[in-house]
Amino acid sequence: MVGLNGLPADKQAVARMTASLLHRGPDDGGFYESGSIGLGFRRLAILDLSPAAHQPMMSNEGDLVLVFNGAIVNYIEVRQELLSLGHTFRSTGDTEVLLHAYQQWGHDCVQKFNGMWAFLIYDRRRGCVFGSRDRFGKKPFFYYRTSRYMLFASEIKAIRASGLYQGGINWKVASRFLLQGDLNDDEERFFTGIYQLPPGTSCELDIDGHWKQWRYWSLNTTNVIDYADPVGSFGELFEDSVRLRMRSDRPVGVTLSGGLDSTAIICLLAKLRGEFEQERTTPLHAFSFIAKEFDESTYINDTLVQTQATLHRLQAAPRDLWDKMATVIRFHDEPVHSLNAIVGFELMRLAAARGIRVVLGGQGADETLGGYFSYFPDYWEMLIRHGRLRDAWNEIQRYTSAHGGSAKKQFLASLQKVGITACHHIPAWRSFSNWKHERTEQANAWFSPELCRYFEREVPEYLDLSLNTLLKCSVEKDPLPLYLRIEDRNSMAHSVETRLPFLDHRLVAMVFTLAAHWKLRGPWNKFVLREAMRQHIPESVRTRADKMGFPVPARKWFAHDLYEPMQDLLATRAVRERGIYNVSAIEHDLQRHRTGDMNVAQGLFNVAQFETLTNLLKGDLV
């Protein structure tokens, strides 16, 4: 908390904020108060478990005070550089390294860091608070400003717990979610007046209340390097990324599906464990969920044979996950994207129950390496736009020979899409297309005209995009920021830190210099990763062409196990008096969903969790 215009910080408000985040840091806590500055912290001890790493952490001279959430995984290398410059240390972890790095390099210290972070430093010398969020936004950083105070926190609930928050649901954001299912992680949040600092951004607030923020890193500013051996270079960087993220004074585990990403991580982790004393003396634990409709056990078993890992399988019936919804929403403060998020929440609970405090996960690989199947048509269309029709035809033929379908139909569909995209450069066509979109949104039978009035439609851009440009949008806008939010809240709800080797900024920068055929080639996505993992992972996983992750059969569940709970929810007085639903239309479509005439599982889940959120707010539980 920063009091504006000389107003002293409210110590009790800071205490309430900090108490609301106990789950993020059950191992230690502390406070700092000086005039208009109030800092509170809850610590999850991962590196240097001793009191020497206590936060808020003060510099030896007492002129800098730090609160820091995250992990600077290259802290040993940065520490060595600082030692050579005359710095001395009293702890062995990354927190003090961050503090000395700011002391040495000021704002530019963030350029030295590899990892994930959200931190604030009170600089008494300069009379300001300096903050920063990591390059991809793996760690959260929220803020809220009144005429008297500015509040900063790792979660929205902390700002609401302060007793100073004067707002409610942001209906502009809520209408976008209900009408479109849009959960893009923009600066504006589900609650009015609460914002998040964008990824790759630093900020500064002086004691007079002047605020500024600036971007210190983006994919547009990375250096272009010509890699003579892309496969070898990728493999070396990826292995080093895993190695750095194994640095921990607590046991490290892995979330494991039968897919390429998590298999690559656990196989490298198993290979590198001999370098880490902590890992040599403990079993390698893997955590997985397999719905019987999406069985990947064959691939997982091949991986377990190679790594000798101990597998812990999550057993979760549909009603179990439904009953967990209120708990999950309470920790997230906002809606989630699907029932998969609840599965992830339970996987982290399982990891915590086994004493695991650090989990490596595969988030980021799909968005940087072209892992989603939707990228294949994008790739083919790019080839067609560049006049490479023969190459596009050959790629489509190779794809359909492995995945099925008609190569001719796929090729014609790609030609049509290129034509439609080109038409959007014509103003009259754009106007007609936007009019059609608006008619569709206004015709949504589930919701009232009152809700639609809050909705502000964003007009999409239609550009002749390269595959790399589309991947950049996936990393910076949608879906990766949302998935990182899900990953952080799910893990930290159980006092577990998730680390993501595919989002090492060096690796991502390298991937974005590679030509598209290193991501997609014939039937294969993430081609450079497949080649780099040759002889490192089971061949059955390396060469599998399909993709699952941790899917749940939501369509089936809402037609059977979740049909009655959804019906009961729609019958409640709160839903019928909310004023935003046409309940009879939702009930009608629920019946049609049950008979298989339509699939509205996602819409039903969105209504259910929005009602859960509003009920929690009414009880002041979020």
Explain what the structure shows.
With 622 residues, this protein is of the alpha+beta class. 45% of the residues lie in helices and 14% in strands. Strands 4-5-6-7-11-12 form a six-stranded antiparallel β-sheet, covered by helices on one side. A five-stranded parallel β-sheet has the order 15-14-13-16-17. Helix 7 packs parallel to helix 9 (297-307) and helix 14 (375-385) packs across helix 16. The chain is globular and about 70 Å long. The two termini are 20 Å apart.
Number of strands: 17
Q: Main sheet: which strands, in order across? A: 4-5-6-7-11-12
- The DSSP helix count reads 28
Q: Roughly how much helix do the residues carry, as a percent range?
A: 40-55%
Look at the helices and sheets and give the structural class.
alpha+beta
- Biggest β-sheet, characterized? 6 strands, antiparallel
Cα shape: globular
Oligomer: single chain
Low-confidence stretches: none
Mean pLDDT level: 92
Task: Output the radius of gyration.
Answer: 25 Å
Strand content: 5-15%
